Fold this sequence. Notes:
The protein is α/β, with parallel strands linked by helices. The protein has helices at about 30-40, 55-65, 95-110, 130-140, 155-165, 185-190, 230-250, 255-265, 280-285, 295-305, and strands spanning about 15, 45, 75-80, 80, 90, 115-120, 145-150, 170, 195-200, 270, 320, 325. Mean pLDDT is about 95; it is low at about 315-330.
Amino acid sequence: MLGDRGLEVSSLGLGCMGMSEFYGTADADEAIATIRRALGLGITLLDTADMYGPFTNEELVGRAIQGRRDQVVLATKFGNVRSEDGGFLGVDGRPEYVRDACEASLRRLGVDHIDLYYQHRADPDVPIEETVGAMARLVEEGKVRHLGLSEAAPETVRRAHAEHPITALQTEWSLWSRFAEGEILDTVRELGIGFVAYSPLGRGFLTGRFESPEDLPEDDWRRGHPRFVGESFRCNLELVERVEEIADEKGVTAAQLALAWVLSRGEDVVPIPGTTSREHLEENVAATRIELGDRDLERVEEACPPGATAGDRYPSMDTVNGVTPRPQGVSG
């Protein structure tokens, strides 16, 4: 169960962003096959956004779930505005934009309702009550079932939840991004809001598949990510090597150990690792069967304590509603 609003989802979801953009060129046919295999393995939560592609990721997800809608808890997002040519135009939380964005997403996805509709980033120029009020009207009309926020600060979450119950907060959380621990997590648990952890594998770094930045495709957004360059890359590689050592002793992969750690944070936490292949999907799903004992968790904590990761979470950081990081470009 994701939060206290009755939304049932699988313990692991699937992030679909990388199937269309940011992490190099993906094979659309393999991406669709991966989504369908995920459904076959019991994954129900699929995560997309209108900005991914831009716009094409929702279309891809829509094709993949055609004839399978009853198997899917479909989550998408609005608010990070992009042009047709891919330019980033800012954040928009105006009520009229909320409605237009939802109608466009429904068309691209080929569905009559969205199960979980997130505001991707809070608009600093529009009171959160106005944005959520518009989202609530979509619920009343049956176009949306549940509301969510992404990367929202605790006070923003409280104000939004007072306007209309929020089902889920989506925020980055992994062994190398631990900022959500504390006030953010305490707030959502107090309010009965589920936590969806995006980038639970540290944008792929925690898989152990990268030994140098040159291992990334030339058109991969991560080549400019603060945690994937220079001295930060070398420092973070040492963290991964420590995780790999523990994983090897347990007979699992580093990715599986990292996912198992997020899964161990509570039943109200649902990680949504992204992948573009069925092979890596199968590896991720196997992580749900890994049990971590107290000593395992202690060792993982020693290997990757909070604050150990080198580099910012995004290439450009600013502040929205107090503390919320907002990227100029790709976002979770």
